[in-house]
Design goal:
With 399 residues, the protein is an alpha/beta fold. Helices cover 36% and strands 13% of the residues. The protein is built from twelve helices and twelve strands.
Length: 399
């Protein structure tokens, strides 16, 4: 009988518990330890530079409407969170998560000397190394910190190509787009050779490494195809599920993956022209997909294990432009979502009355604090300082 990671850890915890009868504190500690080491983090990238000011709107500040006389969202149209903040009308999914206490909003996220280039800024966010970059992605370094043994399927990136964020020194990320078509690309004449990989060590270090990668690829493609074929859900993920059902299928199948990475693609949030309707529609798609995923995890009894972190490579300029859109900006919002989240506002919102020389928001939260919150606060890895190559104080977001 084959055990998946979750079953294995549960068995170990229960076996340990059997030796701890009459010691309830030790029993609780053993069970908690197993649960912590089985937690999953999903990172969701809103590519293109999402407009944070029209996502979570400071409608209680008149300066917002002075800066955006045309595209500013009127208070009557917002999904109000309190007497100052309201969600974009498209964010019904986020409103539901907020009311359930499962949505944390982190304000003013950014970094020193921000870049207005999509490619450069995204590279900084992907590597967790602003203004310098790194050979490996921060998510790949996180995988390396979780285990130094190359572990098949530890890290999954759902996309048409691999993100820099998941580039790892030790682990080979599993990258796929369509799970039912996920297999190694080879000529038909080579297929048999690719599938017949040596199991035993050959004594040649390079060949053994290549064989390990090949076996991992074969195993991963088979597991993912099988997981997707068996996955069915009644949950509504909205019109554009944004790849979240594919993650739900993998988690439901018991893959040992602890780190998932996906993106809303094609720079969709780059809203320079006629922003209002398009932005509301994009947010409705993203918000409904995230809400559906959280509800699906609850349906599967897995909500205690999964959290979602959401970011974009930069925000937009505070004033609207002449095309009824917004241009590349600086400080932005980040979100943490899940059953383990203490919902609410975190960080200090930028002052709309104290913009920089380019009419941009001045960041108040180093984005790596949110990364550290996910690493040490959720995964309990206690490796954020090493992964991020610096000390960043986590927010107390997770219960």
């Amino acid at each position: 009988m084959q055990l998946n990671r979750r079953d294995f850890l549960t068995t170990i915890a229960l076996t340990t518990a059997s030796t701890l009868l009459g010691r309830p504190r030790a029993l609780a500690a053993a069970l908690t330890a197993a649960q912590l080491h089985d937690r999953i983090l999903v990172v969701f990238e809103l590519s293109g530079g999402n407009d944070g000011l029209n996502t979570v709107v400071p409608y209680g500040d008149d300066t917002y409407y002075n800066l955006r006389p045309t595209i500013g969202i009127k208070p009557t149209a917002l999904r109000k969170l309190d007497d100052h903040w309201g969600l974009n009308p498209g964010l019904l999914g986020f409103e539901r998560l907020w009311k359930d206490g499962q949505l944390a909003i982190v304000h003013g996220c950014g970094y020193e000397q921000p870049s207005f280039s999509h490619f450069t800024s995204m590279a900084y966010w992907h590597t967790g190394a602003p203004n310098r970059g790194d050979e490996y992605g921060w998510y790949g370094r996180l995988a390396d910190s979780l285990t130094s043994d190359p572990s098949p399927n530890l890290l999954v990136n759902i996309d048409t190509s691999q993100s820099l964020a998941v580039k790892s020194r030790l682990h080979t990320p599993v990258v796929f787009d369509e799970p039912d078509r996920f297999q190694r690309r080879t000529l038909i004449q080579e297929q048999g050779v690719i599938e017949a990989v040596d199991e035993a060590p050959t004594g040649n270090g390079t060949l053994d490494y290549l064989n390990t990668v090949a076996r991992s690829a074969n195993q991963a493609s088979s597991l993912v195809r099988d997981a997707w074929a068996k996955y069915k859900t009644p949950i509504d993920y909205g019109l554009v599920p944004a790849q979240f059902p594919k993650i739900a299928a993998c988690i439901n199948a018991g893959l040992p993956t602890r780190l998932y990475y996906l993106a809303y693609r094609n720079n969709a949030f780059d809203t320079h022209v006629q922003q209002s309707d398009l932005h509301q529609r994009l947010l409705s798609y993203a918000g409904d997909a995230v809400h559906g995923f959280v509800r699906d995890m609850e349906r599967l009894g897995l909500a205690d294990r999964v959290a979602v972190m959401i970011f974009s490579e930069f925000g937009r300029r505070a004033p609207e432009n002449t095309n009824q859109g917004t241009d590349h900006g600086t400080a932005n919002l980040m979100f943490l979502v899940g059953k383990g989240v203490r919902g609410g506002h975190y960080g200090t919102p930028p002052n709309l009355g104290a913009l920089d020389e380019g009419d941009n928001l001045v960041y108040t939260t180093d984005f790596r604090r949110v990364y550290a919150t996910a690493i040490d606060g959720w995964l309990k890895a206690s490796t954020a300082e090493a992964v991020l190559k610096g000390k960043f104080e986590p927010f107390k977001v997770f219960a």
